């Protein structure tokens, strides 16, 4: 086992001491037993030789041959993806253990046993037992230590702030890409133009290359947020279409450049020219922590530029009080943003910023930009729809999922003025997205208004709004609930959710396994089988195992290739939902396991620790019998998330 994998418990109460096991204190956070259980040493097998041959645990990923072009997942890209996940996890640890970052000091947790306070050794050689790594007590014992729990929360808070700042930096990079690529944002007219490269042909017209040289790479924290954005395929496509970033969307993760920037110790290193270019184009520091301690925000009401602190949770290093740290906070990166505008008195809250986003998007629709509302771009199958010729000469054909645009443009029930006035000085106090919802519902409940919006002729007595149009209204609204970012989803929250998967991948540590390439080969086969199950059962939710999920994620990081594959296979752009409720997840995982075993005669969820992977890669049935392995083991393990 790699010595680096000992570093995986930085925000938790205990460290893993055995390859493939989870030392988390909270069972709910643990990886499934199927991935963590390590069999005891089987009887009758000779012990290892006293002086075994040294094994290069970086052999599988030290010399990967990768291009910077999109494509279907391969063994090489799967390993490069794992390498990126390790770099992200190490960055998380670096941030969590930076005492005093944003004035969040470990000392505020109170006295903590030095044996458990320190950071596991980062620089231990693979397989080396570093004396720097202290013995770790049982997690149950450490849970009783309130101070240690507080220390863990302080470190988690540092990471949460880092991620919030990273998401903001990604947004700045995104705007920079729009500028330097001279992208033309999408217009509603593009939706009615057949074979438009800005709409109907956006996902398939992908001949140009975006990634040319290493100095185009962003910092690792921004790369992490982009990685998460692409793992929400439909949201990433929609955001790219609205911004006109077709070449950027099509190119995906430049595996050759990223792999070269990450060494075998998972340090992300680029040239001085790369750092200089980043700062010149974005105006941001290369290192996240070197950016300002305040976020510049325009007051939605009076347009005054405000300097809002990222957090109000910090205290000076010499703080001598005994009060436990309050980690909620009222800063821009805190969970309870509250900041009064010094000019107009408006209190800036996240709910109000969501309303401001909706108002600004509505103005972009009504104004000369004529940009469609988020959530109205893709059809229910996740693809842009080709316009259907109208049966009435001269009439613009109606696209069902573009109904919210028509509603806001109509002016029915004074909807335009009602919405655009929400952030004015004459608006009611503290409007929220619930205020917006009520205004839209007033129009939908008026049958005359709906008939007017849809140009229904008077002689047509009966009319019902299509289901796809109603779904589009909900999709549009979903872009704003608890989200005031530039994008279709809150990327800060998405990165935090994705962090669970990243940690599990690092704990399994397939990357350092002697059977890493064989493992990658098998998971690719399993992934394509998984997609076949999805194709054959379009009305069911198929739930992946961790190995399938790795291949699936790797594919999504080449958006144009993933689009071509899923649309060609299933006539829909398959999305990736990481917010399915646990009951549904467990039920559908059981269903997926049964279907997989019935189709392929193999267990769907099986142990993927080094030991079991090595046995599988040997392809020697007799060894399997000695160790009691069977393809017919019951797959009674829970889903990966």
TrEMBL record:
<protein>
    <recommendedName>
        <fullName>Alpha-ketoglutarate-dependent sulfonate dioxygenase</fullName>
    </recommendedName>
</protein>
<feature type="region of interest" description="Disordered">
    <location>
        <begin position="115"/>
        <end position="140"/>
    </location>
</feature>
<feature type="region of interest" description="Disordered">
    <location>
        <begin position="1"/>
        <end position="53"/>
    </location>
</feature>
<feature type="compositionally biased region" description="Basic and acidic residues">
    <location>
        <begin position="120"/>
        <end position="140"/>
    </location>
</feature>
<feature type="compositionally biased region" description="Low complexity">
    <location>
        <begin position="22"/>
        <end position="39"/>
    </location>
</feature>
<dbReference type="Pfam" id="PF07173">
    <property type="entry name" value="GRDP-like"/>
</dbReference>
<dbReference type="InterPro" id="IPR009836">
    <property type="entry name" value="GRDP-like"/>
</dbReference>
């Amino acid at each position: 086992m790699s010595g680096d994998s000992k570093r995986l418990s930085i925000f938790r109460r205990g460290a893993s001491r055995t390859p493939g096991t989870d030392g988390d204190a909270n069972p709910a956070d643990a990886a499934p037993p199927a991935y963590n259980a390590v069999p005891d040493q089987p009887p009758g097998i000779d012990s290892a030789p006293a002086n075994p041959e040294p094994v290069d645990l970086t052999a599988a990923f030290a010399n990967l041959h990768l291009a910077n072009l999109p494509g279907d997942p391969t063994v090489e890209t799967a390993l490069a993806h794992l390498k990126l996940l390790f770099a992200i996890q190490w960055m998380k640890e670096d941030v969590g253990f930076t005492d005093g970052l944003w004035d969040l000091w470990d000392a505020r947790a109170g006295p903590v046993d030095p044996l458990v306070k320190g950071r596991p050794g980062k620089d231990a050689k693979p397989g080396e037992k570093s004396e720097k790594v202290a013995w770790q007590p049982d997690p149950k014992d450490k849970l009783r230590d309130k101070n240690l729990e507080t220390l863990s929360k302080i470190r988690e808070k540092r990471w949460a702030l880092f991620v919030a700042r990273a998401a903001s930096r990604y947004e700045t990079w995104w705007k920079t890409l729009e500028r330097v690529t001279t992208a033309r944002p999408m217009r509603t007219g593009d939706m009615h133009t057949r074979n438009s490269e800005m709409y109907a042909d956006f996902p398939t017209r992908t001949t140009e290359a975006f990634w040319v040289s290493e100095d185009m790479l962003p910092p690792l924290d921004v790369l992490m947020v982009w990685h998460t954005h692409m793992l929400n395929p439909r949201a990433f496509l929609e955001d790219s279409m609205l911004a006109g970033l077709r070449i950027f969307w099509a190119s995906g993760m430049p595996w050759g450049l990223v792999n070269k920037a990450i060494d075998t110790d998972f340090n992300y290193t680029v040239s001085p020219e790369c750092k200089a270019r980043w700062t010149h184009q974005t105006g941001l520091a290369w290192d996240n922590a070197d950016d300002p301690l305040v976020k510049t925000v325009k007051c939605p009401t009076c347009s005054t530029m405000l300097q809002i602190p990222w957090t109000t949770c910090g205290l000076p290093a010499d703080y001598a009080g005994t009060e436990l740290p309050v980690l909620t906070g009222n800063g821009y990166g805190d969970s309870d943003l509250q900041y009064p505008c010094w000019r107009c008195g408006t209190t800036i809250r996240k709910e109000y910023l969501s309303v401001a986003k909706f108002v600004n998007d509505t103005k972009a629709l009504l104004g000369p930009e004529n940009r469609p509302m988020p959530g109205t771009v893709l059809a229910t199958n996740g693809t842009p729809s080709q316009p259907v010729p109208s049966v009435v000469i001269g009439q613009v054909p109606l696209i069902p999922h573009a109904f919210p645009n028509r509603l806001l443009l109509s002016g029915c029930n004074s909807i335009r003025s009602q919405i655009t006035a929400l952030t004015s000085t004459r608006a009611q106090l503290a409007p929220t997205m619930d205020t917006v919802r009520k205004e839209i519902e007033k129009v939908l409940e008026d049958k005359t208004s709906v008939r007017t919006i849809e140009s229904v002729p008077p002689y047509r007595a009966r009319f019902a709004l299509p289901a796809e149009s109603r779904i589009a209204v909900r999709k549009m609204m979903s872009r704003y609930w608890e989200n005031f970012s530039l994008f279709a989803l809150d990327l800060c929250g998405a990165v935090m959710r994705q962090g669970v998967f990243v940690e599990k991948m690092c704990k399994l540590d397939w990357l350092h396994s002697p059977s890493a390439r064989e493992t990658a080969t098998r998971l690719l086969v399993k992934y394509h089988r998984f997609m076949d199950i999805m194709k054959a059962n379009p009305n069911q939710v198929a739930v992946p195992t961790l190995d399938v999920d790795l291949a699936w994620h790797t594919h999504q990081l080449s958006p144009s290739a993933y689009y071509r594959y899923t649309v060609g296979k299933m006539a829909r752009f398959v999305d990736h939902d990481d917010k399915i409720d646990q009951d549904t997840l467990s039920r559908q995982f059981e269903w997926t396991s049964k279907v997989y075993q019935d189709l392929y005669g193999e267990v769907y969820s099986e142990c993927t620790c080094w030991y079991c992977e090595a046995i599988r890669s040997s392809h020697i049935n007799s060894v399997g019998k000695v160790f009691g392995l069977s393809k017919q083991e019951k797959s009674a393990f829970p889903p990966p998330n």
